Structures
1.
Amino acid sequence: MKASGQPRAWLLCALLALGVACNGDDGDDPDAGVAVDMATSGDAGLPEGGTTKPEGGTTKPDGGKPKPDKSVTPPKGKWVKIASGTTKNLHGVWGSSATDVWFVGAAATILRWDGLALKQVSHGVSSASSLYGVWGSSANDVWAVGEGGLVLRYDGAKWTKVTTVTAETVNAVWGSSATDIFAVGDKGVAMIYNGKAWYYTTSKSAKNLLSVWGGGWDDVWTVGEAGTLMHYKNKNWAVLKKGISASLNAVWGANAKDVWVVGGAGETMHYNGTTWTRISAGKDSHLAAVWGSKAGPVWAVGTSGTSASYSGAIRHNAGGSWAKVSSPTKEALTAVWGASASQIWITGYAGTVLTYKP
């Protein structure tokens, strides 16, 4: 999708002045600065070409306008920088515990937090390839994905390169178990690992898919450019139309009935198991990632501002609305993950690593 070391597509779009189109490789407008009325299409919430609502639910009939970002009290804790030992852009973070956290990024960078310090991990893969996503089923089974179909696997001792079925960039990976793992990427690539090998699934989209998360092996969501939102159910992908033109950059859920999506131009959505509701995070917010603890608040990160003046953006949602939280960096923020409500990590450009101090 992009050469090593270049900004990812969502950030290129985010840094354009609001209201100016950002054209992707496919000629669409994935991150326009103006939210599109959700109610403009009579088949909102329907799969493409369908007349029956998919099991992904419907869109709340609120006149098509996202709810405003009401004023809420920010958390009392603060975010602080951690020395990463690298200036490479970091794109992904995941851990098996608070003392075992993996970070991946440009030039095949892999870092590991052992509870005391971040250390760079050697793996022997060409530094020309960037890694964009990381996830594991356990401390001894971790996957990293990236440019040119690159997929790496950690077995508790070493990282090795794994053969897959695509040469397209793979942007994200998530699984319900060690034998049921989803990966999504450019040009609609969607793959599943069954414990033995990777195989294609038909995603019904040619858009770049940027994130994947599921409430179970047969209840999986993926999002991508130009407002792409798809749901995997009964071994089949359904495309949901939400009337959104901005790029949807990340999806995460506490469970199958508590799912969040974030994207460009302040677009965020929440799913309660039946209904999708749009909640604005502010049109100057271009959010790249979202995560929350099952018993706590939700965090989203990205950038805010315009191409002339932008900074790393952190948003906090503890009661249905988003609050701005002070960021200790001007760098774009790309990923967020936590072991608990008080043990959370954020990654960003130029080797940025932040951790939360409650």
2.
Amino acid sequence: MSAAPAVSIVLPTFNRLEFLRAAVDSVLAQTFTDWELIIADDGSEIETLAYLATLAELPRVQVLRLPHTGNPSAVRNAALRAARGQYIAFLDSDDLWLRRKLEIQVAAQRACRVARWSYTALTRIDATGGTIRRASKRPRAMDAGTIVEQLLTLSVVVATPSVLAERSLIEEAGGFDEAQLFFEEYDLWVRLNLLSEVCAIDQPLALVRSHDQHYSADRIGACQGRLRLLDKMERLACAPRLAPVLRLERAKVAAALAAVYAASGRRADALTMLWRSRACAWRSGSWWLGAGVTASRAVAPSWLRGAVRSRQRWGLRPERAAGETHERPLDQDKAEPAQQAHERNGQHEHGGHAVQHGHEPG
């Protein structure tokens, strides 16, 4: 058996061949070459399997053919069990890396004395590869060190393809929770952060794609997943100061889930969710507001609900819920000059504003 690589790349997939090829190409194009790629296939169809068979012939690529489960955590854990590298890097089958992603991140990770894992900034792209620009000019936070509260409140974005972690740290944390069907990545990030500080690399090295095939498009499942995550973190006995944060987040998510239930016609479930969440939510103004709106929807007659939907359809709802605008398509080669601009400005080097540690350098 060959020597263990520095990085094991975990890439789960289920079909999505139109995106998978580009994801794999972004790995093969990496300037850092001491890696192995483990593709865990969740029972894809014949066309995808034929493509994966060609990859299995490459010396640094291993393809795991698994029975279909539809469980991203189980698929990633299968790849983690096969990994041999010192570090684990995650990449989803619809996302991309810039060419120097591993080179920059591995160097930054090795320079971190207090953090055993790291994440980078990202660029969002659409199904065609076009850059998605946020309407707000305010930059998102890139927090380092202990960021458990930010992870629980989703006030920091730690995208799966931006994460690099010591394999031993992931094993110590127990890997992905296979019962956590949504927000399974944030569940793991919180557990990693309870064991180790995190290093933040303020340079967009991952391209995260938004499209209509997302597993997380199930709004009810997503809300249920967040509630499970928050309940789990409360049982893990996080710092006492996080107790009110967890209560407030549970109240917000419970109100959101009740609203989704009501909007989908599950009025009894909506009212039941509001009733069950009242104990943790009675101090939350947003919960009371959401509860009032949801309860009104749940008990309103069908003709009134139809009138409200018609009013929204004819222009009285927000124009863009996501607050994003699209530009022309951007492929990996077109993204590279932006990275080179970062490098010319010295933003990829350790220290400065690009790499944030939990503490000041000694």
3.
Amino acid sequence: MEHPYLFFVKIFEAIGLGHFAHTYPHVVYSWVLMAILIIAGAIATKTISMIPGKAQNLFEVIVLGIEEFMVETAGEEARWLFPLAATIFLYIFIGNRLQQRFSVSKYVASITRTSASRATSNRLSVLPESPT
């Protein structure tokens, strides 16, 4: 299945990894998504100060609110899990937004959809048939 926006695959072809990019486009787009998240994190943490500005204050309120919600729900021992859960959430959320908004790749978003549809179809196939 060919995707209309293969500029990342073209970049890999230019550096000699074209076969890999054509065989595993979902891996290429996942790497691009990870690079976007890493660069965004580096830019966001570059201007952190002890006296927060408006944007830093807003993000601190959001992050602390979500962290406290998670601790209230799962208990104090789950506080260490928040960075992992937030990272996974951001990866899936931004991957889906890229797929919807820019049609970057359906491969990034298909990871979660495939898992969800398999789980649903497995549950439905186990249900007993109703008598007719």
4.
Amino acid sequence: MQKTHLDSPVKPFIVLSLPRTGSTSLSLLLNAHPAVRCALEPFHPNRAGGRFHRAAIESGDIQRVLRLLLTRVSGIKHVLEASGWPFEQHPHLNYDLLSGEKLTVVTLSRQNLLARVISNFLCRQTGYWIGTKEGFRHSLDSTRVSPISTLEVKRQIEQDQKEYANIHRYLRLMGIRHLNLVYEQLFSHNGTAGDNYVQVCRLFDFLSIENVSFSTFLRTFNCYLSVDKKWADIDTLKRIPNICEINRELGSDEFGWLW
């Protein structure tokens, strides 16, 4: 019989998040472990020629497509939006994806919803989603950034709040084993390498991944949690013409602040 990743002690998993919540960095961290292979957004309409995206829609059975993927990888990263993207016409597929037998789900949430929405806006303007901070800056330098509607930002924040609530309600109701990680704790200016190590050990334990020594963590894994990799610092945000107005009108303890 062909050996698959389902024969591995690593529990089949999905890393689930909204855009701009650190899911790529987390997936790359997981991929740095020799026992893990995490596919980055196979259901993105522009990844793998869109074949997994099409197969999920045409068959209506995203679990069948996922089972095929899990013969090749140990887990996937899946990004969705409150609009239902990447399945705007079939948003239930984003939730059907989570309900497979023996699947575990790692969710990434962001407390600073305002920063997430603004970061997402910048990525939409530049068309740059995955890559280095330097690559993003280069793309930003060649983009004339437009103002963003304060009302649109507020509407998106409210939709994000509902989507986070819906995701966690669904996971609880379906009895799906899940672990929620918080962006601000994973990528903290105040966190030490020791703090990062504790969080990664918790994640590895949850996924039945063999833990690593602290020295190996420092050498191989800690770089993925560096705050230096963040794209949207204050200087970047101020490329948006009306960003001070947005921060003044929408910044709050509930939604977060931009600075």
